[in-house]
Amino acid sequence: MNRDNPKADSVTKEEKTVKTKKIINIVLNVLMYIFLFLCVVAIIMTLASKKDQDGAITVFGMQIRRVLTPSMDECDKTDVSAFEIKSLPVNTAIFVEVIPEGPQEAN
Predict the structure, then answer these.
(1) Is 73 a residue whose pLDDT tops 80?
(2) Do 71 and 101 belong to one domain?
(3) Pick from 29, 33, 39, 54: CA 20 to 30 A from residue 84's CA?
(4) How many domains does the chain have?
């Protein structure tokens, strides 16, 4: 503490609060711009996605599907020993790679 000039301590405290406020402002601005960028990317991906004839949306060659029946549950009649996932219960979401239909899509 500076005993000769008490105003010097108060000025440094004020400068510190001003600098702290500026840093917080900059961080908040950066976070806001990152959030806006992610929103724009999400909108572009939504608009650029293609719908299949059955209504499934294709994004980057992948579709998300849901298991509707217990046909993918583990049972005695199927050999699933070669697979990592042994059973897919009803209402499980899975990603499916879309096979290209024509020569234009294959390239």
Answers:
(1) no
(2) yes
(3) 54
(4) 2
